[in-house]
Amino acid sequence: MFDRLKKAFSKDAKEGFAPSSQMASTQVSEWAGTQGFGFTGMDAGKGFSLTGKVSGKPWRMELGRPSRNFIRGEELRARAELGINEDAAVLVMNRPLKEALEKKAYSIYTDSLQTTADPNLPEEMRWLSMYEEVGWDSLPRPFWARYAILADQRENALAFMDAGLADLLLGWPEPGPLPEVPFMLMLLRGKAYLRMEYNPAEMPTLQHAAAIFTSACESALGGLSTDIAV
What we know:
Elements: H1 3-8, H2 25-35, E1 38-42, E2 47-54, E3 57-64, E4 75-81, E5 90-94, H3 95-110, H4 124-130, E6 132-134, H5 141-146, E7 147-151, H6 154-160, H7 163-170, E8 183-188, E9 191-197, H8 203-224
Antiparallel strand pairs: 1-2, 2-3, 3-4, 4-9, 5-7, 5-8, 6-7, 8-9
């Protein structure tokens, strides 16, 4: 299961990109219009960005070339300026990616010939050493089999990951991303982020990823907001 993730860390991984999405920009643009999202095409039709707001907070989702060497093909990434508690850190990561990153980190630290850190290593490997994995019984076992949650404090993870968001993370449309397809959902520095390999590169994947991200923003605003009611 981890073979493809391991190969993605090699120096020539960037030469092995998967085929690009064949979605027509008009198809994405028309769907975005029905959702009230802004749409901008990029890179000669090979990428796009979507914009919107959740509870008045702006968010942006982009499809383009990957920014991480463990992602092949196209990367779907999103960011929202939520203004939530900046000290809260919660990371949801598919478990195969977490285990592959841990194995890579272990091999680096135990390699006596390696004296300096590789500058190309993703910051996600540093997060694994900074944050503890947490869990609780109210979420179903299939969720924990597919995903891991790391957090600075367990209470912050509990405030963020509710049953509805967990259901969305398990409810990918068929054919949806396999459990080993890299996926991350993060709350860091008062912002929400999504990063995933766009595979399968189809409209249902995009639509569901957008639903996950906007729902995650709503959940974060509801559980970790710094606003004080008066």
